[in-house]
Design goal:
Blueprint lengths: L4 H16 L7 H8 L3 H13 L3 E4 L5 E4 L8 H7 L27 H17 L2 H7 L6
Helix pairs in contact: 1-2, 1-3, 1-6
Length: 141
């Protein structure tokens, strides 16, 4: 199982945003500098986050992004869904009778990986952005 950089960076950027958006809207440039994520990549990510109502953009000199909701109401699963990230531990579809290995039956460890996927997704459903923000505070650039 592997999360892509898109999913990891979306969470990192939103934690950064959540730490600072009560002061002013946060620019992608500031997030880029603090988190080491390219602005081009952040623009792609934030376009999806905006489309899924996780962030709002603010125009103008002091413009940037703010969260659309309270950080406690944004679960990690919401973020992953917004950027088209899926946590999968098996290659086959859940309801398929065919297995990941292309054979007529599922592999002998299929249920183990399927159960792990359920645990991981349950963990992400319980974790909010606020949980991550409370772990560490840092000063603004």
């Amino acid at each position: 199982m592997k999360l892509t950089s898109k999913g990891r960076y979306a969470v990192m950027a939103l934690v950064d945003l959540a730490r600072f958006d009560n002061i002013n809207p946060v620019s992608l440039r500031d997030i880029s500098l603090r988190q080491g994520i390219s602005i081009d990549y952040l623009e792609q990510i934030f376009s999806k986050l905006k489309k899924n109502n996780i962030v709002k953009s603010v125009r103008g000199n002091q413009g940037g992004y703010v969260l659309s909701k309270n950080p406690n109401d944004i679960k990690l699963t919401n973020i992953f869904h917004a950027v088209d990230e899926k946590v999968k531990t098996v290659q086959c579809k859940k309801d398929s009778k065919k297995g990941c290995n292309g054979k007529a039956t599922k592999c002998i460890t299929h249920n183990l990986w399927d159960e792990l996927e359920n645990h991981i997704n349950s963990f992400f459903e319980k974790k909010s952005l606020e949980d991550l923000v409370q772990n560490k505070k840092e000063s603004r650039l």
